[in-house]
């Protein structure tokens, strides 16, 4: 069922690149896995006992699935996808929703049953909202009852209705001729008019439309800037630090996003044509985050990706186009390597955190070191390409960034290449990463930048060793 990754594609990805065929291979595989994940949700619901998923909930799931199936047969509204139903199901934030459903359906009974039941009830109700959006986009007339969550009915890709009452509120929805009528008790009806692509408008103050940025290129569709989806939050845990607060954009923040976005394609292209191509192939939505206080000013920002939300990128408001372009380059490497890891076993290293990474103060597991080194290698290449473009006003700054990223990669590569846990294909992958790093020496940064970068890495290694080396087995420290 899952494709074999050709050697050519493996080496392209090892160089942090990827031609159209290689990127399409990753995308098609991730889309297949999304459909299997959805099927797993439906199967888990059918198999669950009545105390977990009631007969009424199962019947509603079948009804929603039938609506999706009807829309699945209609012509595509979005040229990137086979049909409107899959365009919605492949939206990145559908993945976290499906994972949340599976956790609720599969969890063993215990003290948290009440909270789990409440969350699962909301999760399953969200599938009804997804089905309604798909049917509306496909032009299928229908009547249905949806449930607002904590006073908000989120209709993915369209917008959100703020109900007159708080809590979980029933909302009756009628769809005819490109418009929705939303009806709730003790409040006027709200009429919502669907727009082409992303968003829907209404004169009602209780309606907040979904927003999108213009296509990255002239032929690309608008890119959702999703600050409404209830599944956009990062999960708790150490993997994402303090990046857990999605941002609801006001007009000023939205304008700052648009201003940075308007120059992002040019900034990506200056770092290599493949950077613009991979963003066009892989990026499906942006999720705004609040900026943590420790990020600072200037060109500071924070960002993240989620393995279960392929194509989604979470970021604080970017200060400029170059910063946003660099964020895309960095985070899309994580998406590429995660997608490749679903198809190819690169290593069999355990989860023990014992490796030195110059960009972190804590020890890293092997897989974390590989992920970080891979994204830093791409950043070194991106800034080197920018530095080699004549006439850029920030050329010297680009050289400094390149030198720092390249020095960091050079400090991490020995542990990656020397690992006995690499598979045969994994060794080919990291060897090609090392060769890519070496080829960068053909266009070296100015000596002053190289010296400062090497001093930075040496200082980071020394501080790391003082904190951790005595408590860890030998690695690359």
From TrEMBL:
Top-level taxon in the UniProt lineage: Bacteria
Name assigned to this protein: AKG-HExxH-type peptide beta-hydroxylase
